[in-house]
Design brief:
single chain; about 450 residues; 15 helices
């Protein structure tokens, strides 16, 4: 019977590793981003008898149901789970936690027994290995950062249901922090344990914000999701500026204020700057997104004047598989028809989703981080180099350009010029100087981590 085994050194105790795995959020942090897996039902902790039901892709559109049942658990030694229903003839997974070490061992058997091993054993073992390389690296990065950071925080988050908000919530919860979302519907206050606010009505339950350690503000209308009509341009601006002002003024009026207010911003603040290096001290640029960025950041003034340490994260292009720019690019690149956009010389200020989450966590716990800073990877690259890196990560050519005229025709001139054809050579000096460490400092490595290649 095939057996898979992996061990990884982690700077944490067995108790800390066990605690991380049993908390809400850890399970979602361990789902490989390239796997199309949907959670149907989650068990409540690690105790024997708990079940998790997944709907997952085997290959392409062929899907299967996987029911995993916990059969043994002993704190802090580990736990076992067994496939109760799924694609394997046998699957027994032993999770073991040691001081300074994580260990996984799996006994598995595909359908048709030895014949299945002969026909598909190699490809299945490779898929298992890809998944557990990711799981161990993610566990190591998350646990070591959480153990080294502040403990037991209460954090309020706007935009908690978005791409970044969900990842941040799962990460913080897995570290034992309490995360409370700000919600726009009163019905969700009780259902989600949230705090009510409504930007259009200028309403916010300020009293419910008393006593939080940190507030993270991520909410705002998507800049890429719709055509930039006059109405939608207003929605982009108002959702950011009015929302930030409403929140900042509410925080300023609290008796028990948060120690830190982390507010979103974007590298669009710089406009199109060619190959000029820009950081948090650089002046704003020109254009609609620069106007929005400047007003967005200025709206935090009430919190700053009230003595709350305020961090304005000028975020770059977030690389993730669950949303953002990357999924939209993949079909063409997987088909071998991808390539540079426009002239390909515009800089891409990218950041892996994990590093953005880690940067927010670092900003919460580090008093050196304040004011406007770039939350980008340490190595921005021209768009042509980005396209080549994505092609290499997929094992595909990346030589067919998308002319600027075609991009403008498809997106509209202003949106195309500011979102795709403009560039910012944005470097994260503020994070670097404060001692932040990136898990994915190079663009090709970041792409391979997301794609599982």
């Amino acid at each position: 019977m095939p057996t898979y085994h992996r061990e990884t050194a982690i700077e944490a105790s067995a108790e800390q590793l066990f605690a991380w795995h049993e908390r809400p959020g850890a399970f979602f942090r361990l789902l490989p981003p390239w796997e199309d897996t949907r959670v149907v039902e989650r068990g409540n902790g690690l105790a024997a008898g708990e079940r998790t039901i997944l709907d997952m892709s085997m290959f392409g559109p062929v899907r299967t149901r996987w029911v995993a049942e916990h059969t043994w658990c002993e704190r802090p030694t580990g736990f076992d789970d067994t496939q109760a229903e799924g694609p394997f003839t046998k699957w027994v997974h032993q999770h073991r936690f040691h001081d300074g070490r994580l260990e996984d061992r799996i006994e598995w058997m595909p359908p048709l027994g030895g014949l299945g091993v002969a026909v598909a054993g190699g490809s299945l073992e490779s898929r298992i290995d890809r998944g557990f390389v990711f799981r161990h690296q993610r566990t190591k990065e998350d646990v070591e950062r959480l153990v080294a950071g502040p403990q037991g925080l209460r954090v309020a988050v706007t935009g908690a249901s978005g791409l970044v908000g969900q990842a941040l919530t799962h990460f913080l919860q897995s570290g034992g922090h309490t995360v409370v979302p700000l919600v726009r519907r009163k019905a969700d206050v009780d259902a989600l344990g949230g705090i009510y606010w409504n930007v259009r009505e200028g309403a916010i339950d300020g009293a419910a914000l008393e006593g939080f350690d940190a507030v993270v503000h991520l909410a705002g209308a998507s800049v890429s999701g719709k055509a930039w009509t006059d109405d939608y341009r207003a929605a982009i601006r108002d959702s950011r500026v009015d929302g930030t002002r409403l929140l900042a003024e509410a925080l300023a009026g609290l008796k028990d204020k948060p120690r830190v207010f982390v507010s979103g911003s974007a590298v669009g603040f710089y406009g199109d700057r060619g190959d000029e290096v820009v950081d948090g001290s650089s002046e704003r640029g020109d254009g609609f997104l620069a106007d929005v960025g400047a007003s967005w950041e200025a709206a935090t003034v009430a919190a700053e004047e009230a003595g709350i340490r305020t961090v304005k994260l000028r975020t770059g292009i977030v690389l993730a598989m669950a949303g953002g720019a990357l999924p939209a690019m993949l079909p063409a690149f997987r088909a071998g028809t991808g390539g540079p956009i426009g002239g390909g010389q515009q800089y891409v200020p990218w950041i892996h989703l994990d590093d953005l989450v880690y940067a927010i966590h670092y900003a919460i716990g580090n008093d050196q981080v304040r004011g406007p800073i770039n939350s980008t990877g340490p190595t921005p690259v021209p768009q042509r180099a980005f396209a080549k890196a994505l092609g290499r990560a997929l094992g595909r050519p990346a030589i067919l350009p998308a002319p600027a005229a075609a991009v403008r025709l498809g997106m509209g001139r202003e949106k195309a010029d500011e979102l795709v054809l403009a560039g910012q050579n944005a470097v994260p000096n503020g994070l670097r100087d404060a001692g932040f460490r990136w898990a994915h400092p190079e663009v090709e490595g970041a792409l391979r981590a997301l794609l599982g290649t």
